Amino acid sequence: MELSERKLKILLAIVDDYIATGTPIGSRTLSRMWGGAYSPATIRNEMSDLEEMGLLQQPHTSAGRIPSDLAYRLYVDRFLNVPRLTDQEAQTIRSYYRFRMGEIEDVMAATAHVLSQMTDYVGMILAPQLDNVTVSQIRVIPVTRGRALAVLVTSEGIVKDMFFQIPPNMDDRHLEMMSNALTDLMRGKSLDEFSVACEKLKEELGVGAEVFDALLGTVRKSTAPVRSVVFDGHQNLFKHPEYSNVERARTFLATIDSRDVFYNMLSQTNNMEITISIGRENEHESLQDSSVVTATYRIGGHSVGSFGVVGPTRMDYARVLSVMEQISAALNEILSGSEV
Amino acid sequence: MELSERKLKILLAIVDDYIATGTPIGSRTLSRMWGGAYSPATIRNEMSDLEEMGLLQQPHTSAGRIPSDLAYRLYVDRFLNVPRLTDQEAQTIRSYYRFRMGEIEDVMAATAHVLSQMTDYVGMILAPQLDNVTVSQIRVIPVTRGRALAVLVTSEGIVKDMFFQIPPNMDDRHLEMMSNALTDLMRGKSLDEFSVACEKLKEELGVGAEVFDALLGTVRKSTAPVRSVVFDGHQNLFKHPEYSNVERARTFLATIDSRDVFYNMLSQTNNMEITISIGRENEHESLQDSSVVTATYRIGGHSVGSFGVVGPTRMDYARVLSVMEQISAALNEILSGSEV
DNA sequence: GTTAGCACTCTATCTGGTTGAGTGCTAACA
DNA sequence: TGTTAGCACTCAACCAGATAGAGTGCTAAC
After folding, report:
1. How far, in Å, is the CA of B28 from the C1' of nucleotide C23?
2. Is the pTM of this model over 0.90?
3. CB within 8 A of A4, min separation 6: which ones?
4. Spatial CB neighbours of B132, under 8 Å, sequence gap ≥ 6
5. CA within 20 to 30 Å of B132's CA: A43, A291, A310, B140, which one?
6. Residues A135/A189, Cβ–Cβ less than 8 Å
7. CA–CA distance from A261 to each of A84, A131, A286 (Å)?
């Protein structure tokens, strides 16, 4: 069936209204909204068509219509205009970052918080991942007999500490040499090349083969995907009638707390600027009546992690995208401040 | 009024029953429970006295009685016996820690998770604090022109990284000297003495006064209280009728998300083994119908942080304390494994 | 193609009645 | 004096029936 101009007008009006009010919209309401330009009966006919096309749904026979996932998808893909935030709101966002932001944990907490505060949905952010980064420094520090600390600094300014075993009789100067040689070899390179560098140095230096193995082992372990996800705004759930049903709120919170689901979603978006996943488009069952919007953030030009919000499919997508755009800017700026 | 043996028996029966079932207990129920040893009327008289003493409350005229905060306090202080967990349950707790626990964040997440899983309340843990620790190593690593990384290792095995400014023309060997001299001076000492050490070295070495200042500044900032608190088990709220009221659930979640409240509670318990705060004993208004149980955890003998659960005043205190005892043991063991 | 009219559907809300658990009080009892 | 039986009363929870309101689909007329 053709999606005529009028059908589209009706559909978009329903989407807008439903996003704003959360109640199903009937033909009379629409007719009045346009000052009677079309009669309720006409609108009913069109609505009926739209329902057949899978764009509208009826919660029950005598309720108005609500948009389907497909309608939101159409709306988001083709008719969403994302307004710029007012200067004042942009300012508000910045103000959330005005406190000590020395550590990535602080930045993550602030981001999740401002996301939830500005959107009234649940905000979340994934910790920066260590794949895809380049090395700036590798330093090995003897700590006690038989134990050393490796400090890895990436060119993005991310620091990673890793303890590992060394032979008890290891000479401190050897560790010093290792540090220098490794840093020379690896500077500007990806971590993927770490094992090659280790092999090479094993031969060249002719000492401490087992130290390189231990170091390689700990680096491998520590640069495995970082599964840390921070959430904020759990209480926002209750601002939306969708979750006022206790059982639904409970499953939703359980999904958040299990973290796996969102870790997967957030880590899969690494190459896309913005992803919107609506209702049944979500793989995970307990999210099939929610929408998830995610975006990546960068440190020093590299996309290293992502953040986003999750809320009902009846989400104010325009608002969410505006806010996320602004937060993305603030975030990239703050994180690149610590660039090395 | 005297708290006779029989009154006490009735009170404790009500506390136990209410904790188990969550419904008010009436005189008939109690009378039947004891096979009619006392008639309902007698029990009613006693209950009336207990109510006058502030130990019982009535939700409404024709409901049974429920314990007051004061009753829980009495119960917890004088009549609580904390059963040991079964070996199987102890084993279950350990199993939560079987995965990669390389970083403190992992340990925190696992602890919050097991707390909530084993108790059905909300679990939480505060990150280790850096006051009260002793220094094992301080290392300064040049990163780029004008920028260096200080790595602080405590004798408990906590590592802290801090970037700071150095003069662009700073010689790497000077940084090396600084590292060695600082480590020599500070090893085994508390961080409080760091500024003294800096002053001393400033004079002795005769170079880099401004570097010491910058270093001191960043250390001060980085060792400020760590406000990171991890929560788990939000969905457990709904397992308890106390929070099935949406408004109460919302305020509760809001309190959790603001973090401040719990940061304060968790950081104030640093010297006490276990703290139990019941209902109106809680300073914060939104917790006045909840209870908070916290305990400290240690790394290498020092009490560095705390963890706990929060739930309704009608909390299974015995269960919570059993679980926390076991988790405490597991936690101390795991964290001291990384001791230097 | 559009509209008016009409019978119908479904939810939400209000009402009143019933049930069950529990209380406080009084008077009788040991 | 402490304990108990009896009784009138209270309150929340539940159920059933009535009503109002919003909205629909269908048909026939414009």
Report:
1. 11
2. yes
3. none
4. B190, B270, B302, B303, B304
5. B140
6. yes
7. 31, 20, 10
Q: Does B244 lie at the interface with A, CB-CB under 8 angstroms?
A: yes
Question: Residue A339 above 80 pLDDT?
Answer: no
Q: Can you give the pLDDT at residue B52?
A: 94
User: What is each CA distance from A104 to A109, A171, A209, A232, in whole angstroms?
Assistant: 9, 34, 34, 16
Spatial separation of the C-alpha atoms in residues B152 and B232, rounded to whole Å: 30
pLDDT tens, position by position, B64-77: 999 999 999 999 99
Is the dihedral angle over the CA atoms A17, A23, A26, A32 positive or is it negative? negative
C-alpha B217/C-alpha A12 separation (Å) is 57
pLDDT digits (tens, 9 = 90+) for A126-141: 999 887 788 999 999 8
Three-class DSSP category at A29: helix
Backbone angles phi, psi at B275, to 5 degrees: -125, 140
State how far residue B27 is from chain A, nearest Cα, in angstroms: 33
Whole-angstrom Cα distance, residue A61 to residue B303?
63
B132 CB within 8 Å of a chain A CB? no
Which bases of chain D come closer than 7 Å to a protein CB?
3-6, 9-12, 21-27
Which of B141, B144, B340 is nearest residue A143 as measured by Cβ atoms?
B340
Q: Which residue in B261, B270, B309 sits closest to B129, CA to CA?
A: B270
pLDDT at residue A1 in the model: 67
Closest-CA distance of chain B to residue A209, Å: 23
Q: What was the pLDDT predicted at B275?
A: 95
Q: Where are the alpha helices (DSSP H) in chain B?
A: 5-21, 27-33, 40-52, 69-78, 87-96, 104-119, 172-186, 194-205, 209-222, 246-258, 260-268, 317-337
Interatomic CA distance for residues A137 and A269, integer angstroms:
28
Contact B102 A162 (CB under 8 A): yes
3-state class (DSSP) for residue A130: coil
Interval A173-214: pLDDT, tens: 888 888 989 999 999 999 889 999 998 888 887 777 888 999
